[in-house]
Design the sequence.
């Protein structure tokens, strides 16, 4: 009898706690429903949500035909996004600042953490495209607004998203945040499962909302649009692992900027110049912004008749007029000299872009690109531009690292496998003689496997060749330089690095991806 009473009491206690927790989470106190008139230059607009709730926003038209939706976080209003809106409007964007449902001037009394808010955002996207004729729309969201923006990526009208401090899914953030309500460490989240899970069920039964359906990671995994994730490493509300999880979900076409010393949605405060530079460059690139048609390029080669040169001219125009003005300070510093972190020897292949792969800025990589990412042994017959690059990087610039980066589908390695295809190209044939020999893969029948193994062997061979260069040999012997072998997969964006201990290329930085089969051969490079 006592056990039954205790069990009933426990159920009632958990039920009451779940009710209290849920109702507190789904409703803002009346004192926080702050309303304010539109800012000067803005017009207040209103549309109905799918469930009839009135949604209100401030809107200001721009000049470049592109539009931004700026989404505030939990407990905030559109007013908190006005500073961002002013900056982007100066760059020509139309800006729309909605009040999220149950916030500010918008209707509704229940917050759903993205379940319904994502539908509301889709209504705003439709409004922008149909009534304002915006031909490219991006969203910038903070905290809950960031997760809402990611949840709406299934709408093709949304061309790009900048998400600062989003949660990867609602269940995960609940387990991170609920312990703080009881002054418990975040690690206690799992112990509170008997409270958190009933709270989800209560919200579903009482309000018809299944909160775990707010799962930005699932939407992102299916979406093709470019995404910039920003997260402060000092965020004590939404831990940075949420953005890292999102990035790992879909690293292709996703950028991750982790900001040291920045607390929750404070990246723009800690690094204001970098914030403006990164976000504007991302938007300009993602939305393909150009204020006017690029001029033709005239020369004796009549390159103005080549359509691709028009595209390049447009790119130079965008750089000069939109990107460079926000990077002027950085280039001003670089004009005084360079101090790169590494020399990267990569292939000339147009699909392999070192700064893009490593997310590095100008001045951070010293780059040597050639067919097959080859670094010939140091002797008079092979001495040339590559040797000069290596010597200068090590002896003068004192780079602490050299990276040899091979890649999938390498044309140079295909040339070694099918020498007839390059035999008539005298310079190419001569250059490929500094690569691995066909005999190295004679026992492998599968063509794709032969290419993979030969490409990896080539990376290891070039690392050994590097050690014949006097400047490298001296620095390596002193322990002043690291030699790294990489393989870049074009299709997946994954980098694998040579691991001497394992005797194979492993995903780097380490992740759960299964390791590839061992390479036949030896290499002494370290990573």
Sequence:
């Amino acid at each position: 009898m006592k056990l039954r009473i205790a069990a009933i009491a426990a159920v009632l206690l958990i039920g009451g706690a779940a009710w209290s927790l849920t109702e507190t989470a789904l409703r803002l106190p009346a004192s926080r429903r702050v309303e304010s008139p539109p800012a000067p230059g803005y017009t207040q607009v209103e549309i109905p949500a799918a469930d009839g709730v009135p949604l209100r926003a401030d809107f200001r038209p721009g000049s470049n035909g592109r539009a931004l939706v700026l989404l505030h976080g939990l407990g905030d209003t559109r007013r908190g996004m006005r500073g961002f809106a002013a900056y982007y409007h100066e760059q020509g964007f139309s800006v729309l600042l909605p009040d999220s449902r149950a916030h500010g001037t918008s209707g509704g009394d229940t917050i759903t953490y993205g379940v319904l808010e994502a539908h509301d955002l889709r209504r705003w996207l439709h409004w922008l495209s149909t009534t304002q004729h915006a031909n490219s729309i991006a969203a910038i969201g903070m905290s809950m607004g960031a997760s809402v923006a990611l949840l709406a990526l299934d709408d093709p009208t949304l061309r790009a998203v900048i998400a600062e401090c989003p949660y990867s899914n609602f269940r995960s953030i609940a387990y991170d945040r609920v312990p703080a309500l009881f002054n418990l460490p975040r690690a206690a989240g799992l112990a509170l499962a008997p409270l958190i899970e009933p709270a989800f069920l209560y919200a579903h039964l009482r309000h018809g909302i299944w909160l775990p359906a707010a799962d930005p990671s699932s939407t992102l995994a299916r979406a093709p649009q470019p995404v910039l994730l920003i997260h402060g490493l000092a965020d004590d509300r939404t831990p940075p692992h949420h953005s890292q999880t999102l990035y790992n979900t879909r690293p292709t076409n996703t950028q991750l900027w982790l900001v040291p010393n920045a607390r929750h949605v404070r990246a723009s405060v800690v690094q204001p110049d970098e914030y403006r530079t990164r976000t504007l460059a991302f938007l300009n690139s993602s939305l393909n912004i150009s204020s006017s048609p690029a001029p033709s390029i005239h020369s004796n080669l009549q390159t103005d008749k080549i359509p691709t040169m028009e595209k390049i001219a447009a790119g130079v125009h965008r750089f000069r007029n939109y990107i460079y003005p926000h990077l002027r300070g950085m280039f001003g510093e670089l004009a005084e000299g360079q101090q790169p972190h590494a020399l990267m020897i990569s292939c000339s292949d147009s699909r392999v872009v070192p700064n893009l792969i490593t997310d590095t800025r100008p001045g951070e990589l010293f780059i040597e690109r050639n067919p097959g990412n080859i670094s010939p042994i140091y002797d008079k017959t092979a001495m040339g531009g590559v040797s000069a690059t290596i010597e200068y990087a090590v002896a003068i610039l004192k780079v602490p690292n050299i990276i040899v980066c091979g890649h999938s589908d390498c044309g140079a390695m295909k040339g070694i496998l099918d020498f007839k295809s390059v035999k008539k190209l005298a310079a190419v044939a001569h250059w490929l003689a500094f690569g691995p020999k066909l005999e190295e893969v004679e026992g492998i029948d599968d063509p794709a496997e032969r290419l993979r193994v030969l490409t990896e062997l080539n990376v290891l061979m070039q690392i050994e060749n590097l050690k014949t260069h006097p400047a490298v040999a001296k620095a390596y012997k002193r322990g002043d330089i690291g030699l790294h072998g990489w393989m870049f997969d074009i299709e997946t964006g994954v980098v694998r690095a040579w691991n001497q201990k394992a005797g194979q290329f492993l995903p780097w930085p380490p992740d759960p991806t299964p390791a590839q089969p061992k390479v036949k051969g030896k290499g002494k490079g370290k990573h």
